[in-house]
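Subject: two folds for Thursday's group meeting

Dear M.,

Sorry for the delay on this. The cluster queue was jammed most of the week, so I only got both jobs back this morning. I'm pasting them in the order they finished. Each block is the input sequence followed by the predicted structure tokens. Could you check whether the formatting survives your parser before we put anything on slides? The first protein is the one we discussed after the seminar.
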Amino acid sequence: MITTVDEAFLRRAIGIAARAVAQGDAPYGSLLVGPDGTVLAEAHNTVRRDNDITAHPELKLARWAARELGPDTAARTTMYTSCQPCGMCAGGIVRSGLGRVVHALSTDQLVELNPQSGDWPAVATDGPALFDEARAPVDAYYRPGR
């Protein structure tokens, strides 16, 4: 359930997205709020500026949280973001242990506004293969001495 506090932080994320556009960057902004309501970090999309396909604000904040916050604190944070995180960012958010994400636009709404946002082709994959060979480094890491 989205509260009036959530709406205020979402407006701040939308403001970050608007400032990103004013700086020539893509229109996406996010902020991470700690358990006490303090804004811990903010970021906007710098994919083009940095020539880095991973420079989404959600992933930047997830990486920051993984480096800077203990697991207990991370689990009690909320990320506010102007658009629903993509698959790459969602994976980073899960791995960083953040507790909650609140977004303004859904992916479907974004695609309605910018149809190119939905034009990512599927990547062909094959596998699994070479189980015994592939498991050796995994076993060495997770089950040393085995």
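Second protein, same layout:
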Amino acid sequence: MNSLNRRDALKSGLFGAAAAAGTMLGAGAAEAKPASQAKDYKFDFVVVGAGCAGLSAALEAADQGAKVAVLEKMGMPFGNTIYAGGIFNATNTYVQKEQGLTDTVDAFYEDMMKVSQGRGDPQLTRVYADESAGAVQWLHDRVGINFKKIVKEVWPGLVRGHVVDGPKKPGGAQLITQLLEQVKKNPKIKFFTNTKVIELLKTPTLECTGVRAVSKTEGEVVFHAKGGVLMATGGFHANKEMVCKYMGGGVAWMPLRGSPYLMGENVELTRPFFPYYMNMDQFHGGPIHAQTQANPSTLVNYGVIVGTNGDRIINEAKTYVEMAKELPVITRNNLAYIVIDSAVLENDTVATRLDR
């Protein structure tokens, strides 16, 4: 087996992006002893969470020679990936080149930093911009993902939005289906469902050596991880207590569009390692059509936004995420309308959003 340590993992393309998106916990040689009644497994690498980040990391680790365990607390992947549109912002990709579209990595990086209002980590953002084309290529070559023809969007999307193509809707559901197919057919990966991690095992010097979990079929199970543990369990938006704690009570009553099972285990389980949490008050939001739970997303950039009294209430040049965060403050009942005209209906983006 190739040696797989944290530095090697972070240097390898999409696996590095997945590790940055989740929480990577390196391991030393020492291993915690399992409880006497617990079933005992030994792996090179343990991935917690079967979303896009976790399954991608598992595949990359297995391709490097590691024996990998993927642990999912639900009976199947139930994280936000299956609700996502399946859009990857990237530049200098084979998809762009086939369409004759041009962009630069530097421009992409600068726009990413502007969107984060300077809060984004410069080094991680630079890695994302530099490696984005490779990630899209990896998804196509390794996982078999096809992408739709790129449609020019408003800033900062421009010609960077790579939408997963396939019969399943939304694109995130297609993405997770194909990732899961590759994971299940890989002999070096064992996929455990209905297996909830309840503790990260550690040495006295805080080296993570594996996890303790509760399985629906096997009871208490210990997974030893020679090469470390990747926490890829998503966020905490379904945990009202944590939302109020980190984001404020006003956010807690916003409509939830996404997985109702993201309870913040990734935060609570890592506390014994004394991590530094940052930007916990930040979140990705979008306008929601209450009756259907559809997300109009960038449709709000193509019309005039008015309140219930018909007055224009916000600058429509803002990103839809900015609008989603500001409108509940501007409107007492968290309700606004988009007014568009027939000319805008000829735009492919508007037509797609209306179809939702």
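Two things I noticed about the second structure. Residues 1-22 have pLDDT under 50 and may be disordered. The chain is about 35% helix and 15% strand.

Cheers,
T.
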